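WARN no homologs supplied; continuing
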Amino acid sequence: MLHIGIAFIILVVLLIIGVPVMYCFGTALLYSAVTLGYTATGMLPTIYGKLSSVVLLSIPLFIIAGKIMEHGKIGDALVGFIELFVGKIKGSLAVITSVACAVFGAICGSGMATLSCIGSIMMPKMRDKRYPMEIAAAVACCSAPLGMLIPPSSLCIVVAWGANLSVTACFLSTLIPGIILTILISVVSYFMLRNKDIDVGNGLEQGVTLREVAGPRTVKAIPALLMPVIVLGGIYGGIMTTTEAAAVSAIYAIPVALWIYKGVTARGLKDVFIDGARTTGVVMVMCVMTMALGQILTMENLPTKVLAGLTSVSSNKYVILLMINVFLIFIGMIMDDTCATMLCAPLLIPIGTALGINPYQMCAILVVNIGMGNVTPPTAPFLYMASGMAKVNAFKVMKPVLIILLFAYLPTLLLTAFVPELSTWLPGLIMGSRIA
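OK structure emitted
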Protein backbone atom coordinates (compact mmCIF):
# COMPACT_ATOMS: atom_id res chain seq x y z
CA MET A 1 0.00 0.00 0.00
CA LEU A 2 2.96 2.31 0.67
CA HIS A 3 4.28 1.97 -2.88
CA ILE A 4 0.81 2.58 -4.33
CA GLY A 5 0.52 5.73 -2.24
CA ILE A 6 3.92 6.95 -3.44
CA ALA A 7 2.95 6.22 -7.06
CA PHE A 8 -0.22 8.27 -6.64
CA ILE A 9 1.76 11.15 -5.10
CA ILE A 10 4.20 11.01 -8.03
CA LEU A 11 1.27 11.12 -10.45
CA VAL A 12 -0.40 14.11 -8.74
CA VAL A 13 2.83 16.10 -8.38
CA LEU A 14 3.78 15.59 -12.02
CA LEU A 15 0.30 16.62 -13.15
CA ILE A 16 0.35 19.77 -11.00
CA ILE A 17 3.74 20.93 -12.27
CA GLY A 18 2.58 20.55 -15.87
CA VAL A 19 4.29 17.38 -17.13
CA PRO A 20 2.37 15.91 -20.13
CA VAL A 21 -0.28 13.49 -18.91
CA MET A 22 1.11 10.48 -20.79
CA TYR A 23 4.49 10.83 -19.07
CA CYS A 24 2.81 11.32 -15.68
CA PHE A 25 0.98 8.01 -15.95
CA GLY A 26 4.00 6.33 -17.49
CA THR A 27 6.22 7.36 -14.57
CA ALA A 28 3.66 6.24 -11.98
CA LEU A 29 3.21 2.96 -13.85
CA LEU A 30 6.96 2.33 -14.10
CA TYR A 31 7.49 3.03 -10.40
CA SER A 32 4.60 0.76 -9.40
CA ALA A 33 5.70 -2.10 -11.67
CA VAL A 34 9.34 -2.00 -10.52
CA THR A 35 8.72 -1.62 -6.78
CA LEU A 36 5.90 -4.19 -6.67
CA GLY A 37 7.63 -6.75 -8.90
CA TYR A 38 5.34 -6.78 -11.95
CA THR A 39 6.83 -7.63 -15.35
CA ALA A 40 5.69 -6.80 -18.88
CA THR A 41 5.34 -10.48 -19.80
CA GLY A 42 2.97 -11.00 -16.89
CA MET A 43 0.80 -7.96 -17.63
CA LEU A 44 0.70 -7.72 -21.44
CA PRO A 45 -1.65 -10.68 -22.13
CA THR A 46 -4.34 -9.20 -19.87
CA ILE A 47 -3.85 -5.70 -21.29
CA TYR A 48 -3.99 -6.97 -24.86
CA GLY A 49 -7.17 -8.93 -24.13
CA LYS A 50 -8.80 -5.83 -22.67
CA LEU A 51 -7.69 -3.54 -25.50
CA SER A 52 -8.94 -5.95 -28.16
CA SER A 53 -12.54 -5.20 -27.12
CA VAL A 54 -14.79 -4.27 -30.04
CA VAL A 55 -16.38 -1.58 -27.86
CA LEU A 56 -13.15 0.44 -27.98
CA LEU A 57 -13.54 0.81 -31.76
CA SER A 58 -16.48 3.13 -31.12
CA ILE A 59 -14.18 5.74 -29.53
CA PRO A 60 -12.14 6.59 -32.67
CA LEU A 61 -15.30 6.40 -34.79
CA PHE A 62 -17.16 8.86 -32.55
CA ILE A 63 -14.03 11.05 -32.45
CA ILE A 64 -13.96 11.19 -36.27
CA ALA A 65 -17.70 11.89 -36.45
CA GLY A 66 -17.32 14.65 -33.87
CA LYS A 67 -14.38 16.21 -35.72
CA ILE A 68 -16.34 16.23 -38.98
CA MET A 69 -19.39 17.79 -37.32
CA GLU A 70 -17.22 20.31 -35.47
CA HIS A 71 -15.85 21.65 -38.75
CA GLY A 72 -18.97 21.05 -40.83
CA LYS A 73 -21.09 24.07 -39.76
CA ILE A 74 -23.62 21.84 -38.05
CA GLY A 75 -23.53 24.12 -35.01
CA ASP A 76 -24.91 27.05 -37.03
CA ALA A 77 -27.95 25.01 -38.06
CA LEU A 78 -28.59 23.83 -34.50
CA VAL A 79 -28.26 27.34 -33.04
CA GLY A 80 -30.66 28.75 -35.65
CA PHE A 81 -33.20 26.04 -34.80
CA ILE A 82 -32.96 26.54 -31.02
CA GLU A 83 -33.32 30.32 -31.43
CA LEU A 84 -36.87 29.73 -32.69
CA PHE A 85 -38.07 28.62 -29.27
CA VAL A 86 -36.49 31.27 -27.05
CA GLY A 87 -38.11 34.49 -28.28
CA LYS A 88 -37.38 37.71 -26.42
CA ILE A 89 -36.12 36.28 -23.13
CA LYS A 90 -33.42 38.47 -21.65
CA GLY A 91 -30.20 36.51 -21.68
CA SER A 92 -31.59 34.23 -24.37
CA LEU A 93 -28.21 33.74 -26.04
CA ALA A 94 -26.86 32.19 -22.83
CA VAL A 95 -29.82 29.81 -22.75
CA ILE A 96 -29.26 28.99 -26.42
CA THR A 97 -25.59 28.26 -25.66
CA SER A 98 -26.52 25.79 -22.94
CA VAL A 99 -29.20 24.00 -24.98
CA ALA A 100 -27.07 23.98 -28.13
CA CYS A 101 -24.21 22.34 -26.20
CA ALA A 102 -26.61 19.64 -24.99
CA VAL A 103 -27.94 19.00 -28.50
CA PHE A 104 -24.48 19.06 -30.07
CA GLY A 105 -23.29 16.70 -27.34
CA ALA A 106 -25.93 14.24 -28.54
CA ILE A 107 -24.15 14.27 -31.88
CA CYS A 108 -20.42 14.28 -31.16
CA GLY A 109 -20.12 12.94 -27.59
CA SER A 110 -17.17 15.20 -26.80
CA GLY A 111 -17.08 18.14 -24.43
CA MET A 112 -14.06 19.78 -26.07
CA ALA A 113 -15.56 19.53 -29.58
CA THR A 114 -18.81 20.95 -28.20
CA LEU A 115 -17.06 23.97 -26.70
CA SER A 116 -14.97 24.53 -29.82
CA CYS A 117 -17.97 24.48 -32.15
CA ILE A 118 -20.77 26.12 -30.14
CA GLY A 119 -18.42 28.56 -28.37
CA SER A 120 -17.03 29.86 -31.66
CA ILE A 121 -20.58 30.51 -32.88
CA MET A 122 -22.10 32.01 -29.73
CA MET A 123 -19.21 34.17 -28.42
CA PRO A 124 -19.39 36.70 -31.30
CA LYS A 125 -23.20 36.79 -31.04
CA MET A 126 -23.02 37.56 -27.30
CA ARG A 127 -20.33 40.18 -27.83
CA ASP A 128 -22.52 41.92 -30.44
CA LYS A 129 -25.45 41.95 -27.96
CA ARG A 130 -23.21 43.57 -25.29
CA TYR A 131 -23.16 40.52 -22.99
CA PRO A 132 -20.47 40.66 -20.26
CA MET A 133 -17.88 38.41 -21.87
CA GLU A 134 -16.78 36.87 -18.56
CA ILE A 135 -20.35 35.57 -18.11
CA ALA A 136 -20.50 34.47 -21.75
CA ALA A 137 -17.27 32.53 -21.34
CA ALA A 138 -18.49 30.99 -18.06
CA VAL A 139 -21.76 29.81 -19.63
CA ALA A 140 -19.98 28.28 -22.63
CA CYS A 141 -17.33 26.73 -20.38
CA CYS A 142 -19.86 25.15 -17.99
CA SER A 143 -22.19 24.02 -20.78
CA ALA A 144 -19.47 22.16 -22.71
CA PRO A 145 -19.39 19.15 -20.32
CA LEU A 146 -22.99 18.46 -21.36
CA GLY A 147 -21.33 16.77 -24.32
CA MET A 148 -20.08 14.17 -21.85
CA LEU A 149 -23.48 13.63 -20.21
CA ILE A 150 -25.87 13.62 -23.15
CA PRO A 151 -25.43 10.32 -25.04
CA PRO A 152 -23.58 9.15 -26.98
CA SER A 153 -20.73 9.96 -24.61
CA SER A 154 -17.14 8.86 -25.05
CA LEU A 155 -16.70 8.90 -21.26
CA CYS A 156 -19.59 6.46 -20.81
CA ILE A 157 -17.92 4.16 -23.33
CA VAL A 158 -14.70 4.34 -21.30
CA VAL A 159 -16.59 3.61 -18.05
CA ALA A 160 -18.37 0.64 -19.63
CA TRP A 161 -15.10 -0.70 -21.02
CA GLY A 162 -13.16 -0.23 -17.78
CA ALA A 163 -15.84 -1.67 -15.48
CA ASN A 164 -17.35 -4.32 -17.81
CA LEU A 165 -20.76 -2.64 -17.99
CA SER A 166 -23.34 -2.22 -20.74
CA VAL A 167 -22.53 0.79 -22.91
CA THR A 168 -26.20 1.40 -23.67
CA ALA A 169 -27.14 1.39 -19.97
CA CYS A 170 -24.25 3.77 -19.22
CA PHE A 171 -25.58 6.13 -21.91
CA LEU A 172 -29.04 6.05 -20.37
CA SER A 173 -27.75 6.56 -16.82
CA THR A 174 -26.37 10.04 -17.59
CA LEU A 175 -29.25 11.32 -19.73
CA ILE A 176 -31.55 12.63 -16.96
CA PRO A 177 -28.67 14.24 -14.98
CA GLY A 178 -27.60 15.85 -18.27
CA ILE A 179 -31.08 17.29 -18.86
CA ILE A 180 -31.26 18.56 -15.25
CA LEU A 181 -27.86 20.23 -15.60
CA THR A 182 -28.91 21.87 -18.90
CA ILE A 183 -32.02 23.35 -17.26
CA LEU A 184 -30.14 24.56 -14.18
CA ILE A 185 -27.36 26.22 -16.21
CA SER A 186 -30.03 27.99 -18.28
CA VAL A 187 -31.85 29.22 -15.16
CA VAL A 188 -28.66 30.37 -13.42
CA SER A 189 -27.56 32.16 -16.61
CA TYR A 190 -30.87 34.01 -16.77
CA PHE A 191 -30.55 35.26 -13.20
CA MET A 192 -26.94 36.35 -13.75
CA LEU A 193 -27.96 38.38 -16.82
CA ARG A 194 -31.42 39.71 -15.94
CA ASN A 195 -30.09 43.02 -14.53
CA LYS A 196 -27.37 43.51 -17.15
CA ASP A 197 -27.63 46.15 -19.87
CA ILE A 198 -27.76 43.78 -22.83
CA ASP A 199 -29.75 43.73 -26.05
CA VAL A 200 -32.85 41.54 -25.96
CA GLY A 201 -33.96 39.36 -28.84
CA ASN A 202 -32.24 36.95 -31.16
CA GLY A 203 -33.80 37.71 -34.51
CA LEU A 204 -37.41 36.88 -33.61
CA GLU A 205 -39.35 39.90 -32.39
CA GLN A 206 -42.54 38.00 -31.57
CA GLY A 207 -43.38 34.61 -30.14
CA VAL A 208 -42.69 31.61 -32.33
CA THR A 209 -45.38 30.75 -34.89
CA LEU A 210 -46.16 27.54 -36.72
CA ARG A 211 -44.90 29.10 -39.96
CA GLU A 212 -41.56 29.90 -38.34
CA VAL A 213 -41.26 26.39 -36.90
CA ALA A 214 -41.84 24.95 -40.36
CA GLY A 215 -39.55 27.55 -41.95
CA PRO A 216 -36.05 27.42 -43.43
CA ARG A 217 -34.24 27.26 -40.06
CA THR A 218 -35.97 24.00 -39.19
CA VAL A 219 -35.47 22.57 -42.66
CA LYS A 220 -31.79 23.44 -42.49
CA ALA A 221 -31.47 21.77 -39.06
CA ILE A 222 -33.18 18.50 -40.03
CA PRO A 223 -30.03 16.68 -41.27
CA ALA A 224 -28.24 17.62 -38.04
CA LEU A 225 -31.17 16.63 -35.83
CA LEU A 226 -31.54 13.31 -37.63
CA MET A 227 -28.07 12.18 -36.58
CA PRO A 228 -28.80 11.59 -32.86
CA VAL A 229 -32.15 10.06 -33.82
CA ILE A 230 -30.44 7.54 -36.11
CA VAL A 231 -27.57 6.79 -33.72
CA LEU A 232 -29.48 6.63 -30.44
CA GLY A 233 -32.58 5.10 -32.01
CA GLY A 234 -30.41 2.36 -33.49
CA ILE A 235 -28.69 1.66 -30.16
CA TYR A 236 -31.77 1.76 -27.91
CA GLY A 237 -33.92 -0.04 -30.46
CA GLY A 238 -31.48 -2.94 -30.56
CA ILE A 239 -30.84 -2.45 -34.28
CA MET A 240 -27.15 -1.55 -33.89
CA THR A 241 -24.41 -2.11 -31.36
CA THR A 242 -22.59 0.94 -30.04
CA THR A 243 -19.66 0.31 -32.38
CA GLU A 244 -21.95 -0.07 -35.39
CA ALA A 245 -23.78 3.12 -34.43
CA ALA A 246 -20.46 4.95 -34.17
CA ALA A 247 -19.55 3.77 -37.67
CA VAL A 248 -22.93 4.90 -39.01
CA SER A 249 -22.49 8.32 -37.38
CA ALA A 250 -19.05 8.77 -39.00
CA ILE A 251 -20.35 7.70 -42.43
CA TYR A 252 -23.48 9.88 -42.10
CA ALA A 253 -21.43 12.90 -41.04
CA ILE A 254 -19.34 12.97 -44.24
CA PRO A 255 -22.07 13.81 -46.82
CA VAL A 256 -23.86 16.09 -44.35
CA ALA A 257 -20.71 18.15 -43.76
CA LEU A 258 -19.53 18.04 -47.39
CA TRP A 259 -22.66 18.63 -49.44
CA ILE A 260 -25.46 19.84 -47.12
CA TYR A 261 -23.75 22.31 -44.77
CA LYS A 262 -20.61 22.64 -46.94
CA GLY A 263 -18.45 23.30 -43.89
CA VAL A 264 -15.56 21.19 -45.14
CA THR A 265 -14.11 20.37 -48.54
CA ALA A 266 -12.68 17.06 -49.71
CA ARG A 267 -9.20 18.44 -49.01
CA GLY A 268 -10.31 19.70 -45.60
CA LEU A 269 -11.81 16.30 -44.83
CA LYS A 270 -8.35 14.80 -45.13
CA ASP A 271 -7.10 17.20 -42.43
CA VAL A 272 -10.08 16.28 -40.25
CA PHE A 273 -9.21 12.58 -40.56
CA ILE A 274 -5.58 13.28 -39.66
CA ASP A 275 -6.66 15.33 -36.63
CA GLY A 276 -9.05 12.54 -35.58
CA ALA A 277 -6.30 9.93 -35.99
CA ARG A 278 -3.95 12.04 -33.87
CA THR A 279 -6.55 12.36 -31.10
CA THR A 280 -7.31 8.64 -31.30
CA GLY A 281 -3.62 7.80 -30.98
CA VAL A 282 -3.31 9.84 -27.80
CA VAL A 283 -6.44 8.21 -26.33
CA MET A 284 -5.25 4.69 -27.17
CA VAL A 285 -1.82 5.24 -25.64
CA MET A 286 -3.52 6.53 -22.50
CA CYS A 287 -5.73 3.44 -22.54
CA VAL A 288 -2.63 1.26 -22.36
CA MET A 289 -1.08 3.32 -19.56
CA THR A 290 -4.19 3.54 -17.40
CA MET A 291 -5.15 -0.08 -18.11
CA ALA A 292 -1.74 -1.29 -16.92
CA LEU A 293 -1.85 0.93 -13.84
CA GLY A 294 -5.43 -0.14 -13.13
CA GLN A 295 -4.42 -3.80 -13.40
CA ILE A 296 -1.70 -3.30 -10.80
CA LEU A 297 -4.16 -1.52 -8.48
CA THR A 298 -6.64 -4.37 -8.87
CA MET A 299 -4.02 -7.09 -8.30
CA GLU A 300 -2.91 -5.25 -5.17
CA ASN A 301 -6.56 -5.43 -4.03
CA LEU A 302 -6.73 -1.65 -3.75
CA PRO A 303 -10.56 -1.32 -4.06
CA THR A 304 -11.02 -3.54 -1.00
CA LYS A 305 -8.37 -1.63 0.94
CA VAL A 306 -9.88 1.73 0.01
CA LEU A 307 -13.32 0.50 1.03
CA ALA A 308 -11.92 -0.70 4.37
CA GLY A 309 -10.33 2.71 4.89
CA LEU A 310 -13.59 4.51 4.10
CA THR A 311 -15.68 2.29 6.37
CA SER A 312 -13.18 2.87 9.19
CA VAL A 313 -14.16 6.55 9.03
CA SER A 314 -17.91 5.87 8.86
CA SER A 315 -20.16 2.90 8.23
CA ASN A 316 -22.91 5.13 6.80
CA LYS A 317 -23.28 4.52 3.06
CA TYR A 318 -24.18 8.12 2.34
CA VAL A 319 -21.18 9.49 4.23
CA ILE A 320 -18.91 7.16 2.25
CA LEU A 321 -20.63 8.24 -0.97
CA LEU A 322 -19.99 11.86 -0.04
CA MET A 323 -16.28 11.07 0.50
CA ILE A 324 -16.14 9.35 -2.89
CA ASN A 325 -17.61 12.46 -4.52
CA VAL A 326 -15.06 14.71 -2.82
CA PHE A 327 -12.29 12.41 -4.05
CA LEU A 328 -13.69 12.51 -7.61
CA ILE A 329 -13.91 16.31 -7.55
CA PHE A 330 -10.24 16.42 -6.56
CA ILE A 331 -9.29 13.95 -9.30
CA GLY A 332 -11.26 15.95 -11.86
CA MET A 333 -9.38 19.11 -10.84
CA ILE A 334 -5.97 17.66 -11.68
CA MET A 335 -6.59 15.16 -14.51
CA ASP A 336 -8.20 15.38 -17.91
CA ASP A 337 -11.56 13.68 -18.35
CA THR A 338 -10.46 10.53 -20.20
CA CYS A 339 -7.53 9.70 -17.89
CA ALA A 340 -9.57 10.35 -14.75
CA THR A 341 -12.35 8.09 -16.02
CA MET A 342 -9.98 5.28 -17.02
CA LEU A 343 -8.31 5.37 -13.64
CA CYS A 344 -11.37 5.76 -11.41
CA ALA A 345 -13.96 3.53 -13.11
CA PRO A 346 -12.34 0.14 -12.32
CA LEU A 347 -11.35 1.40 -8.86
CA LEU A 348 -14.54 3.05 -7.59
CA ILE A 349 -17.36 1.10 -9.23
CA PRO A 350 -16.49 -2.13 -7.32
CA ILE A 351 -16.43 -0.04 -4.12
CA GLY A 352 -19.88 1.33 -4.92
CA THR A 353 -21.19 -2.15 -5.71
CA ALA A 354 -19.88 -3.42 -2.35
CA LEU A 355 -21.85 -0.60 -0.69
CA GLY A 356 -25.03 -1.64 -2.49
CA ILE A 357 -24.91 1.21 -5.04
CA ASN A 358 -26.02 0.33 -8.56
CA PRO A 359 -22.98 0.41 -10.90
CA TYR A 360 -24.89 2.58 -13.39
CA GLN A 361 -25.57 5.14 -10.70
CA MET A 362 -21.83 5.10 -10.00
CA CYS A 363 -21.27 5.66 -13.73
CA ALA A 364 -23.48 8.77 -13.63
CA ILE A 365 -21.78 10.04 -10.46
CA LEU A 366 -18.38 9.55 -12.05
CA VAL A 367 -19.25 11.35 -15.30
CA VAL A 368 -20.93 14.32 -13.57
CA ASN A 369 -17.89 14.73 -11.32
CA ILE A 370 -15.41 14.49 -14.20
CA GLY A 371 -17.43 17.03 -16.17
CA MET A 372 -17.35 19.36 -13.18
CA GLY A 373 -13.59 18.87 -12.89
CA ASN A 374 -13.09 20.14 -16.44
CA VAL A 375 -14.18 23.62 -15.36
CA THR A 376 -12.48 23.62 -11.96
CA PRO A 377 -8.83 24.83 -11.63
CA PRO A 378 -5.99 24.09 -11.62
CA THR A 379 -6.41 21.91 -14.74
CA ALA A 380 -9.77 23.27 -16.03
CA PRO A 381 -9.16 22.89 -19.78
CA PHE A 382 -12.64 24.16 -20.66
CA LEU A 383 -12.21 27.26 -18.49
CA TYR A 384 -8.98 28.30 -20.17
CA MET A 385 -10.25 27.50 -23.66
CA ALA A 386 -13.49 29.47 -23.17
CA SER A 387 -11.57 32.42 -21.72
CA GLY A 388 -9.30 32.46 -24.75
CA MET A 389 -12.26 32.32 -27.14
CA ALA A 390 -13.94 35.23 -25.30
CA LYS A 391 -10.64 37.17 -25.12
CA VAL A 392 -11.06 37.75 -21.39
CA ASN A 393 -8.78 36.98 -18.43
CA ALA A 394 -9.50 33.54 -16.95
CA PHE A 395 -9.44 35.02 -13.44
CA LYS A 396 -12.47 37.22 -14.31
CA VAL A 397 -14.34 34.19 -15.58
CA MET A 398 -13.86 32.35 -12.28
CA LYS A 399 -16.61 34.23 -10.38
CA PRO A 400 -19.49 33.39 -12.77
CA VAL A 401 -18.08 29.86 -13.14
CA LEU A 402 -18.19 29.46 -9.36
CA ILE A 403 -21.83 30.65 -9.31
CA ILE A 404 -22.77 28.07 -11.95
CA LEU A 405 -20.86 25.35 -10.08
CA LEU A 406 -22.67 26.14 -6.82
CA PHE A 407 -26.19 26.52 -8.21
CA ALA A 408 -26.18 24.14 -11.19
CA TYR A 409 -23.43 21.52 -10.93
CA LEU A 410 -23.55 20.92 -7.18
CA PRO A 411 -27.35 20.35 -7.07
CA THR A 412 -27.09 18.02 -10.08
CA LEU A 413 -24.26 16.10 -8.41
CA LEU A 414 -26.14 15.78 -5.11
CA LEU A 415 -29.30 14.63 -6.86
CA THR A 416 -27.36 12.09 -8.91
CA ALA A 417 -25.54 10.79 -5.84
CA PHE A 418 -28.47 10.59 -3.45
CA VAL A 419 -31.48 9.95 -5.73
CA PRO A 420 -30.60 6.67 -7.48
CA GLU A 421 -33.71 6.70 -9.68
CA LEU A 422 -32.34 9.60 -11.73
CA SER A 423 -29.64 7.35 -13.16
CA THR A 424 -31.23 3.89 -12.88
CA TRP A 425 -34.84 4.47 -13.95
CA LEU A 426 -34.20 4.83 -17.70
CA PRO A 427 -31.75 1.90 -17.94
CA GLY A 428 -34.19 -0.23 -15.94
CA LEU A 429 -37.15 0.86 -18.07
CA ILE A 430 -35.46 0.10 -21.40
CA MET A 431 -33.12 -2.76 -20.47
CA GLY A 432 -34.97 -4.32 -17.54
CA SER A 433 -33.16 -6.82 -15.35
CA ARG A 434 -30.01 -6.62 -17.46
CA ILE A 435 -28.78 -3.61 -15.47
CA ALA A 436 -29.03 -5.30 -12.08
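Residues 202-206 have pLDDT under 50 and may be disordered.
OK
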